[in-house]
Amino acid sequence: MGRNLGEAFAERGPIRTVGVVGMGYVGIPAAALFADVPGYTMVWGFQRDSPTSGYKIAMLNRGECPLVGEEPGLSALVQKVVRAGKFRCTPDFSKVAGCDAVTLAIQTPFRDPKDLEPDFTPLFSAIRETGRHLSEGMLVVLESTVTPGTTAGIAREILEAESGLVAGRDFGLAHAPERVMVGRLLRNLREHDRIVGGIDPASTERACELYRPILAKGRVIPMTATAAEVEKTAENTFRDLQIAAVNQLALYCEAMGVSVYEVREGIASLREEGVTRAILWPGAGVGGHCLTKDTYHLERGVMLRSAGLDWPEGEKSLYLTARAINDFMPKHMVHLAKAGLHRVGKTLRGSKIAILGWAFIANSGDARNTPSGVFRELVVAEGGDVSVHDPWVENEPGIAISRDLDAVMEGADAVAIFTGHREYNALDPAHLRRLTGHVHPVIVDGRNVIDPDAFIREGWVYKGIGRGDKNSHEIVS
Ligand code: SAJ
User: Fold this and answer.
1) Which of 92, 311, 327, 408 has its CA 20 to 30 A from that of 215?
2) Rounded to the nearest whole angstrom, what is the distance from the C-alpha of residue 404 to the centroid of ligand 1?
3) Does the Cβ of 261 fall within 6 Å of ligand 1?
């Protein structure tokens, strides 16, 4: 009887060298935190030398962090571990062979969410590369968000085919989903509990050993690999569901002539033990790389096992309905803009529409899957002329984004606020109206950042998501 995995780990001894594949929003902070652990002697960051991301290799090896946006503590930590000689970035995957544990943090975007087919190509090629340099007693951990069943399924198959080794006997395999958040990358990794799921108990325990040292406050929560995949996709599915629930309420409040924010305050006042309502905030849409796709991962996972699913006949998934509601919100913003323009005898065609905010989340430069993009496409398709302001987004291929708010407001017939950047918290209605050059410009507030009455008093035509109490106001001449 050959030795088992536990013996293979024991023979290798404690984890000393760690590899992190994928130098992105997840991999860079993870690698820096691993490198800062006294017990880990070396961390290799693996990054393909591709035209779009290869520049990160040299940057990281200079001790510079290539991520945009405010990430407290990250640049200093990268500099510290590079100077200490404990972290290096390389395109040379053969260095995987010298690692005791390798984590893979590669994005899994969807080619087209409608067909539920995620693009696993980048992840699978990284798994293949890792498999080629696998040796006995190593641990492989997938951090990317994947369709439930991937770790114990195709990922295991690729690793075994490339290495000739057997998962669960010769090497360990686990899923430990990341929970990073733009703007709080380091904090989330240190403070959030960490879900760790192995294909077998020995893999789970070895993966817990890997992550424990970087958890300042959080604890590891062990489970199976497939349960960890379901947990990750479900935790984001539930957030998307919560947002859809309040977006639906906002649409209802508009139709019934009340303010969703007054209603929300009442609902949120229920704070007794066990009866709280986790009501979130309505808005111009849901962007980002988590909530826009994780529901589809979860749905695909169960679709692949639908033989075992008991479900009410003909009913659509609640989770997919939530996605449809959230994806409707940028369209609703178009409808509000059109209704506002109609009040002053205008249409989108021939009008200039200023978009304030291109990032998908406030006070960040991250614009992945931004709802502003959906709005812009719809307005342009109807003959509108769009200008975009964002004080955080560095550059967006094919979109002219200005940092000069006055210039963007120049001549605008309507303004749509899409992102709750702090720069929009003190917009001056009189100054902005003068910039538009119109007597009754339109403003559509998608993030509840302006005071409706202050703008209405200055002659603006106001529309706001969830503001059924204000959306039919008298126009002040
Ligand atoms: N949004 C709303 N209303 C809300 C909250 C968010 O419309 O009440 C919109 C935002 O404007 C944005 C999108 O949803 O367009 C996503 O916002 P987010 O705050 O969920 O930020 P993400 O996409 O970075 O989500 C991350 C996720 N974290 C991980 O995947 C580790 C998510 O699971 C977290 O719950 C979330 O951060 C968080 O807690 O802030």
Assistant:
1) 92
2) 27
3) no
As a whole number of angstroms, the distance between CA 154 and CA 68 comes to 33
Can you give the pLDDT at residue 114?
59
Q: What is the pLDDT of residue 289?
A: 83
Structure tokens that stand for 311 in this block? 């479900």
In eight-state DSSP terms, residue 460 is: P
**Residue of the CA atom closest to atom 36 of ligand 1:** 181
Q: Per mean pLDDT, which range of 1-10, 218-227, 394-403, 451-460 is the poorest?
A: 1-10
DSSP, residue by residue, 47-84: ----TTTTHHHHHHHTT-----S--TTHHHHHHHHHHT
Q: Which numbered atom of ligand 1 lies nearest the CA of 281?
A: 8
pTM of the model: 0.91
The verdict on the CB of residue 182 being under 6 Å from ligand 1 is: yes
Is 232 part of the annotated catalytic residue set?
Answer: yes
For the stretch 343-400, pLDDT in tens is 999 999 999 999 999 999 999 888 989 999 999 999 999 999 999 999 999 889 899 9
User: Which residue of the set 56, 86, 232, 346 is catalytic?
Assistant: 232
Q: Determine the 3-state secondary structure of 117 from DSSP.
A: strand
Query: Is 346 an annotated catalytic residue?
Result: no
Domains in the chain, start-ordered, CATH in brackets? 5-218 (3.40.50.720), 227-477 (3.40.50.720)
